[in-house]
Amino acid sequence: MIRKHFAGIAASALALAISAQAVAGTVTTDGADIVVKTKGGLEVATADKEFAFKVGGRLQADYSTFDGFYTVNGESADAAYFRRAFLEISGVAYKDWAYQINYDFSHNAGSQEDGYFDEASIAYTGFKPVTIKVGRFDPAFGLEKATSSKWVTAQERNAAYDLVDWANGHQNGLGIEVSATPTESLFGSVGMSAKDQNDVDGESTKQVNLRGVFAPLHETGNVLHLGVNFAQRDLSDTVFDSRIRSRLGMRGVSTGGGNDAGTNGNRLLLGGANNRPAGSYDDDSAWGLEAAWAMGPFSVQGEYIQRELQADDAAFEDVDATGYYAQVAYTLTGEAREYKLGKFDKIKPENKQIGAWEVFYRYDNISVEDDNGAFAAIDDIEGKVHNVGVNWYANEAVKLSGVYVTSAVDNAENDAGDDDGDGFVVRAQYVF
C-alpha cells in the first residue's frame, strides 16, 4: 500500500515535469494511471483520485484616476498597480487531505515579516459533510468575502468591510475552521484564530468567527440566499490600532503592487486612534446579515454590518460602527452567475466570439460614532459611495472591467475643504 501511494506521488511529479517541457509521449507507472489537464492551469491527478496537484494563479492589473476627497489637496491623481498577483498551488493527498497555498507577489496580502501569503492551509475532508481546515486563511464573514476576488462583481469589495477589516481580513497568525453542508440548502462554519498581535504578557489576540447560510434556492440562475455572521476578538490588555479607515472604493489612494497616490492619497478616517493603550478596550464584536436573489442573468444582493468596540476604561467611550450595501447586476448576454452553496462564482461566456457582458450598480454606506479624543465634538462621520460599472468576460480566463466611483462624506473633509470625490478604475484580469 505504501509503495502504491509513493508511486502515485512520483507519477504526478513526473507528469508535471514532462508537461512543463511540452514533450509528447507516454508515461507509464506501476501505480494508478494519471490524468493531465491543462485547461485553467496545470493539473495532474491519479485516476483513482487519491492524489492531485494543480498550479494556477491570478493577475489583476489596475489603473485608476481620481480627485476631490480622494486626494489631500483635491487635485487629480492616478495610480497604476497590480491589485493581486497570486501564484496558487493546491492538491489532494491520500484522498481526504487537501492543501492550498496562495502567495501574493503584489504584497497586498500578508506582510514582510510573516510572508505575503493570501492562504496557506491544510484541510481534512474525510468526515463528510464536515471539513476541518487549519493554517493561515481569511476567517469567514460575509457573502462578498466568501466569493473569490476573481469573480466579485465590482473591482473592490463593499466599503462596509472596511469597518471590520479584522473580522475577515489578512491579519497574520493561524486558525482552525470547521465547516459543514448538512443539506443542499444549509452551510455553517465556526472558526478560531490566534492573531500575531499580542497583549502586554505576550498572549496572542484570540478571535472567534461564526457564519450560517440558508439557501432554499441554490441552483445557478435560481438563487435565494440568506446568511448571518458573527465575529469577536479579545483586546484586553492589548495595545492596538483602533483606527477605522476607508478608501471609499478607490484602492489607488494607498496600495501595494506598484504606484499609488503617495502622500497625496487621502483615506477617510471615521474614528479610533493608533496605539490605543492597553486596558482601553475589552471586547470587539461584529455581526452581519446577508441576502441575495438571482433569477437568470439578473441578481440582487446586500449585506448589513454592525460593530461595537467596548471600552474597558472609564476614560473611554464605546465606539459603534454601521455599514451596508445594496447591489444589482445584469448580464446583457444572458448568462447567469454561477452559485455554489454560500457564495457566488464566475460567469461563463456562452458565445466564445463576444464573451459575456455584465453591468452593475452598487451603493455603500458606512458610519462611525466615536466620542473619544478628536472625535468627541464631531457628529457621526459618514461615507456614501456609488459604483457604476461594466464587466466583459472575454473568455473563462480573461476579464476586463471598468467602474465609475463617486463618494460623499459627512463631517469630514480633505485639506482643500472637499467632502466629495470622483474616480474611475479599469482592470485587466487573467486567471489560470
Automatic annotation (TrEMBL):
<feature type="signal peptide">
    <location>
        <begin position="1"/>
        <end position="24"/>
    </location>
</feature>
<dbReference type="InterPro" id="IPR010870">
    <property type="entry name" value="Porin_O/P"/>
</dbReference>
<dbReference type="InterPro" id="IPR023614">
    <property type="entry name" value="Porin_dom_sf"/>
</dbReference>
<protein>
    <submittedName>
        <fullName>Phosphate-selective porin OprO and OprP</fullName>
    </submittedName>
</protein>
<keyword id="KW-0732">Signal</keyword>
<dbReference type="Pfam" id="PF07396">
    <property type="entry name" value="Porin_O_P"/>
</dbReference>
